[in-house]
Amino acid sequence: MQQDPTYETTATDRADAELVRRMTGGESSALDGLFARHGGRVHGLLLRMLGSSGEAEEVLQDVFLQAWTRAATFRADKGSPRGWLMVMARSRALDRLRASRAARRRDDVALQERPLVEPPEAEAEIERQELGARMRQLMAELPGEQREAIELAFFAGLTHSQCAERLGLPLGTVKSRILMGMKKLKQGLGTYR
Amino acid sequence: MSESCPFTDLVSAHALGALDEEERVGLERHLAAGCAVCEPELSAMERVAEGIALSAGAVAPRAEVRREVIERATAPVPFRRPAAAVPTARAGRSWAIAASVSLLLLAGAVGWGVVQQQRLQRVERDRAALAAELSAARAELARTETQLASGQVERAALLRHLAVLGASRLQQVQLAALPPAPTASGRMFVDPGSGEALFSASGLPALPSNRTYQLWFIAGGQPTSAGTFDVGPGGAGRVLVEAALPPGGVVWAVTVEPAGGVPQPTGEMVLKS
Fold it and tell me: Which of A126, A172, B112, B153 sits between 20 and 30 A of B33, alpha carbons compared?
């Protein structure tokens, strides 16, 4: 995932990258720092995907332990530590979903409106300025059927064909909804600097 | 954006992880070859995907979770044996004391059992995490081996290409662009000594994963397949012709066909000599 182009986020990325660098030297305080800065975001994503606080907490721990053991593989030129964590979190959550008996429950969760949650105080100020808040607004502005298809694909990990089957729609319709929605989101972010 | 690529519409679904297997493999192959249109689109769509992930919002985890992450990260051994056995009550004590001790033992046993179960769960999670890491490492190794094998095949092919191009009496045939690919160009290099021929094209548009380019030579009005090829950066592609060429002149042509090629041309012609 790309680095955020704003100065604030770039500065945040640099601070995060420094924490990851210190983690490679075995400094657990750096891991604690990374958790403090991004634990809430990763947890929020996992809750949204898994729908179960127990599973979300387990995967949350696994994600940060994976970051700890694989800190040396992080490439700052390939993206931000935040993006790195989110990709790991989504990947592990999808593994759970695909192997889990909870698939149906989660799919239902993915289709629900996002629960209103307050971010932790330490993250609130940063988050207000960042991508997630803007994306929430853009998602809310999408036509419902486009948002639904994108959320099923992203949060429930369904492919085009699986989305079409789940929604009882022709494959082409689902592809078109996802494409149109993603183009609008990209366009919306394009003006966000 | 003035340029276009038939793969670009797949990129957004790829960033979401929504492509079905065949499309995903086709797009990844296309991206690996390099595409000036799809690469920036992928970067933009990955940023959108990151935004969607962050749009879930932040939810503070319990403090215990954070503490446990640090404990697990710094623990030299994830599982430790329980403490020494609880001493038994001495004989001669009163019933009340014995009952109290029993209750304490029972509570201790229950507590110890809970602790053990938690530790067992933790070990299970560690085991699952290690298994996932191992699986990912194996997949990476398999990919590397495939790339290595592919590199060796490429090298052998390039050596054969060089052998044709180094022939002392090399013949060249120009293929002209036809309307479906107006910017394309192609050239045949034929070594009359060995009968081998090398085809090289550039400026051909990229195709979706279910289509391929196919080279033909036409003699006496009868087309014969000379091989299929995909194009990389700059729409470049090459074919080393394995089929025996008939004596006398032939006409060369390139058509767009279903992946894997067809016995007789069915698609539109993009180049012809």
Answer: A172
* Closest residue on chain A to B43 (Cα): A2
Please report, in tens digits, the pLDDT of each residue of chain B (273 residues total).
446 888 999 999 999 999 988 888 889 889 988 889 998 999 899 889 989 998 888 888 998 999 999 988 887 654 444 444 444 444 445 556 566 666 667 766 666 666 677 777 777 766 776 776 677 777 777 777 766 766 666 666 667 777 777 777 778 889 999 998 888 999 988 887 777 888 889 999 988 888 899 999 998 888 999 989 888 878 888 888 877 788 777 899 999 998 888 889 999 999 999
Interface predicted TM-score of the whole assembly (ipTM), two decimals: 0.81
Look up residue A140 and give its two tokens: 């809310």
The β-bridge partners of B254 are B215, B271
Fold of A120-192: Arc Repressor Mutant, subunit A (1.10.10)
The answer to whether A1 contacts chain B (CB < 8 Å) is yes
Q: Cβ contact (<8 Å) for A153 and B65?
A: no
pTM, 2 dp: 0.53
B83 touches chain A (CB under 8 A): no
Class of domain A9-112: mainly alpha
User: Which of B204, B222, B224, B221 has its CA nearest to residue B212?
Assistant: B204
CB contact under 8 A, B48 and A186: yes
What residue spans in chain A does CATH classification 1.10.1740.10 cover? Answer: 9-112
Domain with CATH 1.10.10.10 in chain A: 120-192
The owner of tokens 């090399």 is: B170
Alpha-helical (H) ranges within chain B are 8-16, 21-33, 38-55, 63-74, 95-165
